[in-house]
Amino acid sequence: MTSEAAAQQLCVTCGLCCNGVIFRDVELRTEDDAARLRSLGLPVRKGRTKTRFAQPCAALECSFCRIYPERPAYCREFECALLKSTIAGNTEPAAALRIIRTTHKRAAKVLRLLRELGNNEEQLPLSKRFRQVTRAMEMGEISGEMAGTYGDLTIAVHELNLLLSSAFYPGSE
What we know:
Blueprint: H1 3-14, E1 25-27, H2 34-39, E2 44-46, E3 51-54, E4 60-61, E5 64-65, H3 73-77, H4 81-87, H5 93-116, H6 126-138, H7 147-167
Antiparallel strand pairs: 1-3, 2-3, 4-5
């Protein structure tokens, strides 16, 4: 198997660009048919200046895109730094899979802590959920007994963000 073929299989294993861990939303481009994407189940919204849909993506099932042939332009073009590094032969596929597994574990820890703190809004990206819990903590809506859990969450989010920035974001390769 070529390094490019192995790298492409990473996407199916990963899904982090679609599940709300890396991105909070995806901006549509002029060539995207917003009405068609809505009919395929994406909650496309027109903002003041941009048209976008929120993450986690409604078309994501496990790590598969159920609208793959008709996915938006940004989704077609995006390659994370880990994928680029693997395609270029700078990262072995097995090492990339280990990074993906570690990232999934860190994201799962963040999700568990968010749920423990009462945030069960699974349809929202992690960054937005963390901001909601932070706001609730600042407003005194989370009990003092949960302060330790909030501290654990803050550290878990930081550790996840460090890994994302070092392995997945463009320019980190």
